[in-house]
Design goal:
six-stranded mixed sheet, about 190 residues, NAD(P)H-dep_reductase, FMN_Rdtase-like_dom, about 40% helix, Rossmann fold, NAD(P)H-dependent oxidoreductase, alpha/beta, Flavoprotein-like_sf
């Protein structure tokens, strides 16, 4: 949503139960590119994902983490979504977080309508990266978002991530590029709502 300043808000959503996973490290690298380009960013990663109950499982409503996620989605000018490729598709942990976007169904901006969404997949092999990336694109389309032209598929079986650094410069370049595409798309949103 438009804010008083011209600083786009980019939400990074994804990871695994491990805060040092290749998925979360890749997401953090992409978010840093957005922050370096002037965005306000937030990483909704491992600890927050693990604090989310199964969507709509609590009759009392959303917990504080769920409310924070929904508000971050509402504020977002762009999203970078990252998932491990588990058995050829998006992980249950990340899918549960995506399900919380249903809370925006009655909003003026429904779901991710008009938002650029960058996609990152990490897996221990190439087959799972391709099928998971395709599944994520389908999910983003169903939520009315605009997947960026580049989706990053990373074969992390060689242990290329360590201490927040990726040893593969080609992967680093792809992570920078997907963040740049989200940033460019986030500035176009002002024309979509007029």
């Amino acid at each position: 949503m438009a804010k008083n300043d011209d600083k786009p808000f980019i939400l990074g959503l994804g990871g695994t139960t491990n805060p040092f996973s290749s998925t979360e490290q890749a997401l953090a690298i992409a978010l840093k590119t957005a922050a370096d380009a002037g965005a306000e960013t937030e990483l909704f990663g491992s600890a927050k994902l693990c604090a989310l109950p199964h969507y709509r499982s609590d009759p009392a409503g959303l917990n504080e983490t769920g409310k924070a996620l929904v508000e971050a989605v509402r504020r977002a000018d762009g999203i970078i979504l990252a998932s491990p490729g588990y058995h050829g598709t998006i992980s249950g942990l990340v899918k549960n977080a995506v399900d919380y976007i249903e809370e925006t169904a009655g909003d003026e901006r429904v779901y991710l309508d008009g938002l650029p969404v960058g996609l990152i997949v990490t897996a221990y092999g190439w087959q799972a990266t391709g099928s998971t990336l395709a599944a994520m694109r389908s999910i983003v389309h169903a939520l009315r978002g605009w997947p960026t032209p580049l989706g990053v598929g990373i074969n992390a079986s060689g242990g290329i991530f360590k201490d927040g650094v990726c040893a593969d410069e080609a992967v680093n370049e792809q992570l920078r590029l997907v963040a740049q595409q989200v940033m460019r798309g986030s500035h176009r949103r002002q024309y979509l709502t007029q």
